[in-house]
Write a structure and sequence with these properties.
The chain has about 200 residues and is mostly helical. The protein is built from 7 helices and 5 strands. The termini are far apart.
């Protein structure tokens, strides 16, 4: 028996047609033979499967537990964060990392990790800073075109560039990250981008 390619009337996908009478693919023909649905009725809508469940995933809705190492690192992070906060308040330098406005010590603020929080950067003292929740959200969520329009952005970029040129490692990496972000968005051309890199 010779099969041909076509659109299956059961599932509606282009398949190899094995039943020429009903014009069905192999899977839909098996469903017809085993009584999954009546061929005179419209077949049920089948959602597209975007991914397969992993065999070892017995509890798909269960959140993975934190390892003992991660618990210790989070405790170090909490300690370093409080230490940094106390140091900044004592030096009268407790300011928003982005807009540079003074922060109220009683106010709940976001702790920003300047160069990410992977590995030791989670609790690395120079990598921690504090910011208003709005400024922090704008930095992480806004695309580069909207970010550049924020009132605080240009002053923030100048401050980072000054500290990067002074040799501060954390700010050098941040300065290059900002340049890359604006280059990828098309705000900087390649000439400006390479001139900005430190």
């Amino acid at each position: 028996m010779k099969y041909e390619n076509g659109i299956c009337k059961g599932c509606g996908f282009p398949r190899l047609i094995v039943n020429k009478k009903y014009y069905l693919c192999d899977k839909c023909n098996k469903e017809r033979l085993h009584g999954k649905f009546n061929m005179h009725e419209k077949p049920p809508d089948k959602p597209l499967k975007r991914w397969k469940k992993k065999k070892y995933d017995k509890h798909p809705n269960k959140v993975a537990m934190r390892s003992d190492k991660r618990k210790i690192e989070e405790q170090w992070y909490a300690d370093k964060r409080e230490q940094k906060r106390a140091d900044l308040i004592e030096k009268d330098a407790y300011r928003c990392f982005f807009c540079n406005a003074k922060l109220d010590p009683e106010e709940d603020v976001a702790c920003h990790h300047i160069n990410g929080r992977i590995g030791k950067l989670l609790y690395h003292y120079p990598n921690l800073s504090f910011a208003h929740h709005n400024c922090h959200r704008e930095w992480h969520d806004e695309d580069a075109h909207k970010l550049v329009k924020q009132k605080w952005f240009h002053y923030f970029e100048e401050r980072v560039e000054r500290r990067a040129k002074a040799g501060d490692e954390v700010h050098i990496k941040l300065h290059n990250t900002i340049a890359m972000r604006l280059f990828k968005a098309g705000i900087y051309d390649s000439e400006i981008y390479f001139n900005k890199l430190i």
